[in-house]
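Honest question from a wet-lab person: if I give you the sequences of every part of a complex, can you actually get the arrangement of the whole thing, not just the pieces? Trying it with mine:
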Amino acid sequence: MAAFRAWDTELASEIVANHAGQEGPLLPILHEMQETFGCVPEPAVPLIAQALNLSRAEVHGVVTFYHDFRREPPGRHVLKLCRAEACQAAGGDALAARAESKLGVPLGETTADGRVTVEATYCLGLCAVGPSAMIDGRVVARLDEKRLDALIAETNS
Amino acid sequence: MSARLYIPRDAAAVACGADEVAAVFAQALRGKDVTVVRNGSRGLAWLEPLVEIETAAGRVGYGPVSATDVPALLDAGLLDGRPHALCVGRVGDIPWLKRQTRLTFARCGVTDPLSLDDYRTHGGMKGLERAVALGPDAIVEEVAQSGLRGRGGAGFPTGIKWKTVAQTQAPQKYIVCNADEGDSGTFADRMIMEGDPFVLIEGMAIAGIATGATKGFVYIRSEYPHAIAVMTAAVKAARAAGLLGRSVGGSTYAFDLEVRSGAGAYVCGEETSLLESLEGRRGIVRAKPPLPAHKGLFGRPTVINNVLSFAAVPFILAEGAKTYADFGVGRSRGTMPIQLGGNVRYGGLFETAFGITLGELVDDVGGGCFTGRPVKAVQVGGPLGAYFPRALFDTPFDYEAFARRDGLIGHAGVVVFDDTVDMAKQARFAMEFCAIESCGKCTPCRIGSTRGVETVDRIMRGEDRAKNLEVLADLCNTMKFGSLCALGGFTPYPVMSALTHFPEDFHAGPRLEAAE
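Yes, you can. This is the full assembly:
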């Protein structure tokens, strides 16, 4: 579980400056923004646009194109369930339904108490040991009902 | 010399508890003369975490090991390779491994992925040394002679691609590695990056020398944090050792690499979309021409190849084009690292010469479904690959043979399904996935996929079935021939193959709710 910083213009400017020498710096900058603030906050868009000599629309377009970039910070825990074919073949559908019903929210949403964001992911590359998931960056395979319930219980901490 | 104990750091092993196992071993072995090596995976997924101990008689394996097994394993004499219920004997003698032809994956799971000494001891850097001695033209010729074709899925001859870039004049050229391995059922790129990253670096450096490119990028999908970490560390180590930089391995050639992370867009596995993404834009597919070889990254001539294509090159240079081309069949030369996943008993990484049949792979190698039920279908080549029924299990693994049966090898992922799978649902998912991941540039893909989901829904509800089946076939035809890239163009493969080979799943009439 990561602790995110509150928006800080100076810190954001530093992040942009860190990537000054890179070719094609926008994605690395957005990744670092999200690692720092938990999302790409709205004020980051004009700041990045100015620094890279892009329009706000261009930066906004990039932020919204990629599934990874969030506009709001996620819940305290992030549970990603693989929903791709190999995990479907290994019983992933039933597990996804179970997670949705246990957490009371559909995939792609955060529980009302902000405890956990549950998302679909399309392949973690663990296709021979599925169904698989990732919780707060940690990969977990050979999921069954018991192991899934344990992961959900972990988000109570 | 202290004994070496191997515990994989591969993400699949970690996901099965390898880190916990390593922690318990570290605690138990404190003060003992044992070195723990975090190796890559051998690719025997059902045995992960597979722990190996080096003995006078070779490496003896134990798996699948859980953290709670460790004390008993040590008591049984694991450090001397003694028997235990989890002992699988000498790892090199395991038939599943023995029947493979590991050229690209020769070191994966054997060595310490981040040790350059290990890499060299096991034959690494020979390809680069020979490449430096040969010079650009001869390298390109060697790669062309090997018959190597792009391992990402399209199967385009690598030598021709390299030659085009080599012959195009420009002040800056690039080598880009497509490590956006998004196809479900594939993990070979991830395994090689986590288990033998230097082979990829070596392959890319050879490409740089061959084409006159001095800068390279490895674009790795963000779903692979472990691969990103290992590759980043390997690039740093290679730079420190002088293998990357102004003078590659002491030669007159310059080449350096940067690791970049994707951001969760499947379409970025398409080469032009990947280049857009690297440049910092939306991953929107480019129309071709111009080819990336003429105008690629930042408008410069660019070699863009899959991880496995680059990783095959060091062997080809070290052992010669002929040695590589002697493996395989027809126009599919060399070996293919095939990935067996889904509902399969013995899944993992199986590198073998082209020509093995689908049936051998699924039944003999894979051992059928882990659920013990009959195999109903296998999807080959990821979410854009066709579903094959048992009746087509005699298809040999070969680009052309698969194409003749309206399928594709793609990145060689084989996903096995048992008889509980509903093929209409799988067809619907193919359309749904295309709708989620479409970059939106071309209409057949952007809109066709959504209409496809709706049409399959109507068929599944039993609404005007004959008419809607016709609409679906027509829609697939439009997507296949009217889309700009393989996402829209190949989505019809899983849909139409499901329809063709499993019509009964589409003819069930009005479905009973909660029939499962």
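Two things worth pointing out. The first helix of chain B runs from residue 11 to 15. Chain B has four domains: 3-98, 116-325, 328-418, 423-506.
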